[in-house]
Amino acid sequence: MKKFFSSLLAMIMLFTFIPDPISAAGSLTATKTASKITVDGVVKSFDAYTIDGNNYFKLRDIAYILSGTTKQFDVTWDGGKNAISLLSGRPYTVIGGEMAMSTGGKTKSAILSTSKVYLDNKEITLAAYIIDGNNYFKLRDLGSTFDFYVEWDGKKNSIEIESMFSYIPENTGDSYSYRSDINLENTQKDYISNTASISPVQQFSYKNEGFAYAYVKDKSLIIVTPSKQLSVEMKYPILGDVISDDDGNIYVVWGKQNDSNGLINENVFISKYSPEGQHIKTTGFVGKSSPWGDSNAAKTKTPFSSGNSVSVIADGILVNYHSKLRYDGHQSDNAIAVRTSDMSVYQLPNDTFSGHSFNQSLIYSKLSSRILFASQGDAYPRGFRINNSNGKYGDSNEIVFHFYLEANANYDMSIVNKTFAQLGGLAETSKGVVLVGASAKSISEAAKMEKQNLFIQIFDPLAKELSPSTFVGGSSRSGATSFDINDNKNSPLTEVTDYGVVWLTNYTDKNVIAPQVVVADDRIVILWTEDSKPAPESFYMVLSAGGDVITPATSLGRIQLNSYEMPIYHNGLVYWAYTYNGKLRVVSIK
User: Fold this and answer.
1) Which one, of 565, 563, 129, 47, lies nearest residue 310 by Cα?
2) DSSP track, 467-519
3) What is the mean pLDDT of residues 20-46?
4) Where would one find the signal peptide in this protein (predicted)?
5) What is the pLDDT at residue 579?
6) In angstroms, rounded to a whole number, what is the distance separating the alpha carbons of residues 517 and 363?
7) Has residue 349 got a pLDDT over 80?
8) What phi and psi, each to the nearest 5 degrees, are found at residue 341?
9) Does residue 328 register a pLDDT over 70?
């Protein structure tokens, strides 16, 4: 019996370990790695060593831990050829002993391996050492080979392995897809907020190259495209938006707070730059007042306050739609436009106004040949409102989704500001315009206690009025709400109905946070964050043009979002950039 187990052990060791020949000249001292090691954010115990300043991990441990991810690979041993075979994309075949810790001291002898290594039947060169009969490979070599992310965090004394990120070579902190030491706020919103905000990282599509982004650093605006980086001086201190046209010209929307002495000055600006970053012209605006009169009190004091700033270019016109703080102390929205040819002011109809507009979305609808504005307003009107640049969307009722407001609000902003909903954005497919949002499901007192769930509405932008036939699929959502934020007489609520609502989640224990939408090859791609326990988590979902689920809610793992910037679709991939703990990453999903 003892001879049987001895033979079995010998066979396992033959399969697991790489035998001689070995090079005695390659012997080095291996020191047990003292750093914490995380895999996709979870601490793992590895039998790892530092050799000549580099981290070496047991080959089979890495294969074992990555099995089931998109970076998985299998390992086989050919004793006759003295060769290790790595097969990418295959689940790892467990042989026993994976993730086991070695015994003995903290330092051991590491002998350079002479075994050949094959990746998918092609020979490759990887640095490997044998320690106590096991193969240890340089972690960065494996990361590069199988395209998983490896990073050393000196502040935390930790080695980070991320299966959902691509490999980034060392000393590439200024690369297109990854930047370290970025002094910016985190871009992902991990809690429900009544208002949107301007992201510290603006993202946009650049010519036919694809994804581009911009951020502020040391009083300069850094603009990064796949082919170049530009740095332009900050003309004004508040960044609102960045966009480019088909020729590669770049437009920056920015502003400044107006003087406190009551003077009404230009304080919202659109600047045009050449593809090389040369300033061409800047056009300024004072911020128009409300539709009820040209009062200075309603003009812009602080641009981009308690809301978003979004832009679109269509038919030679650049339109920007943003939030603002007015001189009278109220918050609302504002729309400005210029002709891109000469940067002259283009006068928009004065119908885009929403009082207390806490988030904005803007698209050019090819189906209607119009620019559509979406606003999240808590008062005038109260709901998700859709307008277009040639007049109101509907003859009398432009609210497509209502928010609950109790009676006797009596202008109490702690009541009025709560909309129990968040605007995701607008997009367009061949079936119609898509409105994405998150909301309590009820239009009643129950909304105060309900979690906010993900929904869409798809509607015909050419419809003359709102009716069930305006919408694609979905169901009705009815209730009663007040429309009078000044009500102090307990006035009766008004019955309302929303049409074509498609609920995509049904959570009772967590909220959807800051949903986003982009159309990719006539499919609707939605991303969002959830206030899950123990930590927020982000997801994506893919729908058909008509709203049918193709890919159900899928976790993005450790990947975070750029919560108030719409993703960019290019050549089969959906891109975005996000910052977290001083690092910027560009990521994508198919």
Assistant:
1) 565
2) -GGGBSS-EEEEEEE---TT--S-PPPEEEEEEEEEE----SS--EEEEEEEE
3) 77
4) 1-24
5) 95
6) 12
7) no
8) -65, -45
9) yes
User: Distance (Å, rounded) from C-alpha 448 to C-alpha 437?
Assistant: 17
Residue among 162, 130, 100, 152 nearest 27 (CA) = 130
| Residue 192, CA distances (Å) to 177, 307, 421 in order | 29, 14, 9
Calpha distance 476→82 (Å, rounded): 68
Q: Are 164 and 147 a contacting pair, CB within 8 Å?
A: no
CA distances from 296 to 283, 288, 299, 307, 379 (A): 20, 9, 5, 21, 21
Pairwise CA distance, residues 204 & 568, whole Å: 7
What residues does each domain of the chain span? 2-162, 235-348, 359-503
Distances (CA, A) of 365 to 63, 535, 546: 48, 38, 16
CA 168, 38, 51, 64: dihedral to nearest 10 degrees? -90
Mean pLDDT, rounded, for 394-401? 65
Residues paired with 22 in a beta bridge: 113
Confidence check: pLDDT of 394 > 60: no
pLDDT for 26 equals 52
Amino acid at 47: D
Mean pLDDT of 27-40: 90
Mean pLDDT of all residues in 540-562: 93
Beta strands in 411-452 (DSSP E): 421-429, 432-439
CB neighbour list of residue 579: distance below 8 Å, 6 or more residues apart:
182, 184, 185, 186, 187, 200, 201, 215, 585
State whether residue 249 is helix, strand or coil.
coil
pTM: 0.83
Confidence of residue 578 (pLDDT cuts 50, 70, 90): very high
∠418-392-255 over CA atoms, to 5°? 60
Tokens 């504002």 belong to residue: 334
Given a cut of 50, is residue 3 above it in pLDDT?
A: no
